[in-house]
Amino acid sequence: MFIMRLSSSVFALLCLMCEVLCIALFLRGFFPVPVKSSVSSKSKVSDLPPEPLTGSGTNASESPGPVFRRVVILLVDALREDFVFGSDGLRFMPYTRQVVERGSSHSFIAKARAPTVTMPRIKALTTGSIPGFIDVVMNLNSPALLEDNLIWQAKNAGKRIIFYGDDTWVRLFPKHFMEQDGTTSFFVSDYTEVDNNVTRHLDDTLKRDDWDILILHYLGLDHIGHISGPHSSLIGPKLTEMDDIVKKIHAALISKESEGTLPNLLVLCGDHGMTETGSHGGSSDPEINTPLVLISPAFRRKGGFEVPGVLEQVDLAPTLALGQGLPISKNSVGRLIPAVFEDLSLRDRLRFLQLNGHQLSCLLEDNNPSFHKEDGYELFRVAEKSHGSWMKLYMDGNTSEVLGNMGKKVLKQYLEALKAMSSALSKQLGKYDMYSMIMGMILVLILLLLAMPEALSREAAVDIPLAASLFSLPFYLLCLLGSALHVLICTSAGGLCYLCSLPWVLVFTLIILSSALMCALVTMAARRMPTSTKTPTKGSGWTLSELDVVLLVGTVGHTLSLSSSSFIEEEHQTWFFLLNTLCLAVFQDVCRKYFREQEEGGEEESFSSFSPAVELGMSAGSEKWLALATPLLTLTCCRLLRSLNHTGVQWAHLPDFGHWLNSADHKMFLSLLAALSLALIFLLIQRHCSLVSKIALSLGLLGVYSYRAAVGNVLFPWQHSSRAVSKLEVERWDGEFLTGERREESAMTRPRRADAAFSGSQRRLNLLFAEASAEVTEKNYRCLEGVSFCQSGGTVEARFVYVFVLGILFTGVKDLLRAQLTSSGGDGGRLKSRGLWEVYSGVVLLVALLFRAHNLPTLACCLLIQTVMAQFIWKRLHYDAAQTTIMHYWFGQAFFYFQGNSNNIGTVDISVGFVGLESYVEAPAVILTALSTYAGPLLWAFHLLCYLTSQRHRAVMGLGHGSYCFALLRSIPAVFYVVLVTGLRYHLFIWSVFSPKLLYEAMHTLITTAVCLCFTFMDQDRSGRL
């Protein structure tokens, strides 16, 4: 029988890689295909239904004409509703508030659906459909939008469209705009030029008459939010800048109005909001509530401020389409806004409602087999019949009160039908690909269950029986069953499944490989099962210590807690509790060793050659007190870190210590804390480095502080002057905004280049706010030369640090390669250990650069806990590889949340993807963002690798079993969660809570696979074990 022998680390890596592929297949089926019409073509005017008419008469089948002549869409990225309708609107947007309260306008709160990121929101605004959650990933590289949309309909109807702003529109709608100028939306450190590049076109464009639709997408407000949050001192001036834009456009549109022409329309809206930390992507109220202000002379003047109505963001698409005389997009689930058409004739209003209802009913028929039973569909058919009866009376010339009352009744029936149908389509969201989901779930579940016995064994190698897999009857039966099942599903599903769209040869190859893998795993698991003929020997059974029970119950308990949406939202509380419990359990072990087992001196003497206290220059007697203090020190650090960043949902909005540190009044304290943290990082890391690496590390950490000073987060000792004066000046200028003293020239009228001439008041205002802001942008070039100013944005400093990071990594990799070529086992082991620690030092330096200034204590505490736990706990208490691995995993998970992360996509800090970059580069941005987000788990996993490598002679199972346990710890919750979301796919919070967590689990599994790859590389010795 042919058997292939693999080390346990290699086998764990292969299992994880298979799991990643299975989870990817599951994700492809789980994230639903958006609700779409079965007809791939676009809506046409010729396809519009005629007006319903009963009895004799001529059918009025002509399409309705446009209601507005010109439309200007002013989209302000991340514009929260309270920025317009709240106190901020009164202070910083007085003109807009005056129009809202007294002008010819309609105001609404438009609710955006998760995910609240730009590209899916643009799709929703232009197509009226609800994009799938997977569009979060597509947001980084937006492909052309092929489905029916408002922009295509306008272009097809001969409308001339001009666009300026976020280049996502240019990628979504290539060759649709008569004129365009896009700016990148991902370089979040720039909040000035991205908006100036839009505004510089306004004066000339508003004077011209050669356009019908003007779209402006301003990014500056969103970028300020990412940099410093919604309460930054930069928010007010930016809102005032947007208020000036509204005033300029409104005045230009009014000047173009003339007798006998249709009125113009100005739309002020936001694509999404922002959280209290300035991020977005989730479904909290500050993220989904956006303002929608429609301004036109066609509307009645307001008598005072009215509470804005609430509607869905997708309702804007059918409203604009009908207002421009265009067909509604086929995939739109929105319903028109009745207030926009309230001054039209009753016949036109009923006609618009009928067109909207017809489009929704067709979409419902295509996506719901039981559409006849839907209340909205039945209501629409009843409303259409009533509409026909009303048309008969209208065409007969009836002018009695009966006609008016009947028309109002029909109007109400249409509105109820539209609401019901839109709600039914929105709830459906899309169709799950159950075939892909079930196959991915079954494969990953079987893989975990059958591979688990190998993980629980104490063998360093795994024997895979290839012959039993490829030449057995079960293998051929599984291949036959899988092929038959695939043919049956694909022929009955009509090719709607992803697996059915793949080439048949590829699918059958996957079936053969999956069957062989399953047979091999079953054979391996059968060998591990106890048989009745064997007599259990002494010591063969498991003995669990109190610590083992804590680790086992904690791991299983956390996995089970994922079935609750509240526990997912507040998962950090689970890990904080488990970490505190672990520290108490370790404290008990320390007390038992040093105080209850003093009479057992044999074991102590056998390890007397190693004494951490002596290594640290202390007396040997103080060692037990340092060991006792280690769990208490860990508890203290964890408690302090919990106060640094509030995360989750329940308390995330409350001020924390991080907010206090980032305020302008406490910048000096933040500077001191950052400097002390960097000094502690150097002291803890340099012990394992060579002299060259120590010098590079010290210079690199100095560069980190210089970078933070360059971007305005911290101060050098000589930079603390003139701060108070600047703040007083800002307050005075803020008062001038309130009293109506406006700038001589708006910031938006400046030319595109930063060194162009400023107006006097605008130049002074920008200088004052740049000095007073506690969160100066991470990249904003300023020059202080008389009337212009410019300051390096940290790019040079960041690249300075990158040089030392690469140098340290190169030194470590060189030692690792030398270790592979060294014949002496002792010398090779020392070189390998030193090389790993130097690579680890380089990673720490890179993380220090990416972490925000107030998070540097988190990194310092992480390294401190690693050092004391390794010196006084893991080495002295002789924990095995499995126990040490589980502890490292728990610490890594806890530090993921200590950083301020959560299971909400909105907490991902994308600004770190641009550290040291002058423009958006996709690959480095993605890598840096992932490294910063998962820095906690990665640092603890890397420390585990370094520790086990340096302690291999003390562990029976060593790196191989540690790798296997690490892979198992990641696989158990991931597989459980895949099964869970399959059963909860129709849960109320499936898209707001469970789906973001699923993406986090998938990404974490992918990163764990990369970590296990490092374990596998380090576990390969020169004996060539396979």
Topology:
Layout: E1 3-7, H1 8-30, E2 33-34, E3 71-76, H2 82-85, H3 87-92, H4 94-102, E4 105-111, H5 118-127, H6 135-138, H7 150-156, E5 161-166, H8 168-172, E6 179-183, H9 193-199, H10 202-207, E7 213-218, H11 220-228, H12 235-255, E8 265-269, H13 285-288, E9 289-295, E10 309-312, H14 316-323, H15 346-367, H16 375-395, H17 401-428, E11 430-431, H18 434-456, E12 461-465, H19 466-470, H20 473-493, H21 498-501, H22 504-528, H23 546-561, H24 565-569, H25 571-596, H26 601-606, H27 612-615, H28 623-644, H29 657-662, H30 667-685, H31 691-710, H32 723-739, H33 760-772, H34 795-821, H35 825-850, H36 856-874, H37 881-898, H38 922-933, H39 935-950, H40 958-983, H41 990-1019
Parallel strand pairs: 3-7, 3-8, 4-10, 5-6, 5-7
Antiparallel strand pairs: 1-12, 2-11, 4-9, 8-9
Description of the structure:
The chain has 41 helices and 12 strands. The chain is mainly alpha-helical and 1026 residues long. Among the domains are: 70-340, Alkaline Phosphatase, subunit A; 344-431; 563-597 and 615-716 and 794-952, no CATH class. The strands form 3 sheets. It has an 8-stranded mixed beta sheet with strand order 6-5-7-3-8-9-4-10, sandwiched between helices. Helix 28 (623-644) packs antiparallel against helix 36 (856-874). The radius of gyration is 33 Å and the shape is globular. The model is unreliable at 54-59, 532-541, 602-610, 721-792 and 1022-1026 (pLDDT under 50).
